[in-house]
Write a structure and sequence with these properties.
252 residues; 4-stranded mixed β-sheet; 48% helix
Length: 252
C-alpha cells in the first residue's frame, strides 16, 4: 500500500471473522483509537518465519533455548515508512499505542498498573476453565494444513472435542460459570453508568477489551452452544458488554 498505516498480523482460520483473543485486544485498541490499519493473515506454520523476516522481537524463550515467536505483532509505519516500528506481545503493543498515540486513551491516568493486573487476571485465571472446551473447538476451525502442522509438530497438545462430554462437560461448565459470576459480582459494584457494564464504570478501557476478546472467541468458535449459554448469564451482562464494544469490532 502507498499510504502509511499499521499492519496487524493474525491467524487464518475457516471462520469468516477472526477469533484469537490476544489479537483482538490489539484490534480493539486500533479501532478505538481510530488508527488506520490492515490485517495480514498467516497460516500457523508461517508465523515464526514471517516474524523473523520482519524483525519482530520474540516473546519468550523455549525450554531448549530457542526464541519463541507468537502473535499478535504490529508493524507501525504511521510515523516513518522508512523506519517502521515492530512490536510483539498484546500488552506491550497496547502500551506502545497508548504512549505513541495518546488520543482516546485506553489506560486512563492513574489506572495503568491496575489495568494490566486485571488483564493478567483475565488471561491466567478467568479464562482457564474455558480452555478445555474452546481449544478443541478452535483447532477444528483452523485450515486443514494448520491442523496437520499442529498435530505433527506437537507444538501444543490438542485434546479431542470429545474429551469433555457428558458429566465432565457439565462439570467444566460449572467451573466456567463460577468465574463469570465472580467477575460479575465485582463489576456490579460499578454504578456510575447505571449498569456497571464496563470495568471503570463509565468509559470502555483496555480491561473491557480483554473481557470482550474472550467473549468474541467464544462467539466465533461456538455461537450456538457456548455463546448461547454465556451471553444470558448474570442478567445478560456479557451480551450487553459485547454490544457496548461492538462499534470497535471492525476488521480491516
Amino acid at each position: 500500500m502507498s499510504h502509511s498505516l499499521i499492519t496487524l498480523y493474525d491467524i487464518r482460520s475457516n471462520i469468516p471473522q477472526p477469533w484469537a483473543p490476544n489479537i483482538w485486544r490489539v484490534r480493539f485498541v486500533l479501532n478505538y483509537k481510530r488508527l488506520p490499519h490492515r490485517t495480514v493473515w498467516l497460516e500457523v506454520d508461517q508465523v515464526e518465519s514471517t516474524l523473523r523476516a520482519i524483525g519482530a522481537p520474540p516473546v519468550a524463550q523455549r525450554q531448549d533455548g530457542r526464541p519463541l515467536y507468537t502473535l499478535p505483532v504490529i508493524v507501525d509505519t504511521l510515523r516513518s515508512k522508512s523506519s517502521p516500528v515492530v512490536v510483539s506481545n498484546a500488552n506491550i503493543i497496547a502500551e506502545y499505542l497508548e504512549t505513541t498515540y495518546p488520543a482516546r486513551p485506553i489506560l486512563p491516568e492513574g489506572s495503568r498498573t491496575l489495568q494490566f493486573l486485571f488483564v493478567h487476571y483475565i488471561q491466567e485465571i478467568f479464562v482457564k476453565p474455558l480452555l478445555p472446551i474452546l481449544i478443541p473447538l478452535t483447532h477444528q476451525r483452523l485450515p486443514e494444513h494448520s491442523q496437520s502442522y499442529l498435530r505433527v509438530g506437537g507444538a501444543v497438545s490438542i485434546p479431542p472435542a470429545s474429551a469433555i462430554s457428558g458429566p465432565h462437560n457439565e462439570q467444566a461448565w460449572i467451573a466456567v460459570k463460577e468465574q463469570f459470576t465472580f467477575l460479575a459480582s465485582l463489576l456490579d459494584k460499578n454504578t456510575s453508568d447505571s449498569s456497571g457494564v464496563v470495568v471503570m464504570g463509565r468509559d470502555v478501557t483496555y480491561a473491557d477489551f480483554a473481557i470482550c476478546s474472550v467473549l468474541i472467541w467464544v462467539e466465533k468458535v461456538s455461537p450456538h452452544d457456548c455463546w448461547a449459554r454465556i451471553r444470558e448469564w448474570n442478567g445478560g451482562r456479557w451480551r450487553r458488554l459485547y454490544s457496548r464494544c461492538r462499534e470497535y469490532m471492525d476488521v480491516y
